[in-house]
């Protein structure tokens, strides 16, 4: 067997060392509830393929809680990517917080309803059935984000049950609605389907009828203050890619029209 010369070995080592290494970045992400399940499913694959490490802060897209994404950004918490309700992201763009050129739609999200596992599951397949279920329920909970805002400000009026339901309806901050339903604290719970599906101890009854459904589009963007903006854009391209779509759909979200 021919043994490589010292000079040949040195040249081989020099060539190996001259190959540029993949430059990994620590990417700070702020993510709201609706896209959380899809993001968690996709994170390991993305970190393996990109070499980047994702560090995530969780919070609603809006609201007064300290954990909300707008409040986190206002306090100066770092973020290379924000994933949130599209119209809430548009507000941050209008305020000069997020780069409008980075804005990317990711998926649509619909509202669903759960009951405690093993409890009676009322029919909500039609508008009349939904109205009856809400009138007969002992208590109702919904989130302080997009889905709950819609239910409190619009759905109850559309169904003409605001006066009857408001006294037993509660807007929940921070805690996932499904968790409180699983604990027996509320009879019916409404939130984005993708936020209800991962919760143990509840049964997903179904989605709101399409005639009174509210479709929330989730989107992502890069704040102007991002320390790693290019890494942030790379992550957003991945989340919006066909490669990510199966995990997005499995989470309970819907593809964008045309996908």
From TrEMBL:
Comp. bias regions, Polar residues: 51-70
InterPro entries registered for this protein in UniProt: ModA/WtpA
Pfam families: SBP_bac_11 (PF13531)
Swiss-Prot/TrEMBL keywords: Signal
Signal peptide: 1-24
Ranges for region Disordered: 50-71
Protein name per the record: Solute-binding protein
Source organism per UniProt: Duganella lactea
């Amino acid at each position: 067997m021919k043994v490589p010369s010292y000079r040949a070995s040195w040249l081989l080592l020099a060539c190996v060392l001259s190959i540029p290494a993949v430059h990994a970045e620590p990417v700070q992400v702020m993510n709201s509830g609706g896209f959380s399940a899809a993001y968690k499913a996709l994170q390991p694959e993305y970190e393996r393929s990109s070499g980047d490490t994702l560090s995530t802060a969780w919070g609603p897209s809006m609201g007064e809680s300290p954990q909300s994404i707008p409040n986190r950004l206002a306090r100066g918490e770092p973020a290379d990517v924000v994933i949130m309700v599209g119209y809430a992201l548009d507000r941050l763009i209008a305020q000069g917080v997020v780069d409008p050129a980075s804005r990317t739609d990711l998926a649509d999200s619909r509202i669903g309803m759960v009951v405690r596992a093993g409890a009676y599951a009322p029919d909500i397949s039609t508008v009349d059935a939904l109205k009856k279920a809400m009138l007969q329920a002992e208590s109702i909970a919904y989130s302080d984000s997009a889905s709950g805002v819609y239910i409190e400000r619009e759905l109850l009026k559309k169904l003409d049950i605001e006066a009857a339901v408001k006294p037993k309806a509660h807007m929940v901050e921070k805690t996932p609605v499904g968790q409180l339903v699983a604990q027996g604290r509320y009879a019916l719970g409404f939130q984005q389907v993708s936020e209800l599906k991962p919760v143990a101890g509840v049964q997903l009854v179904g989605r709101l009828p399409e005639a009174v459904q509210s479709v929330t589009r989730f989107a992502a963007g890069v704040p102007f203050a991002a320390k790693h903006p290019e890494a942030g854009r790379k992550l957003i391209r991945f989340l919006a890619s066909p490669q990510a779509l199966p995990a997005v759909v499995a989470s309970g979200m819907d593809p964008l029209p045309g996908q």
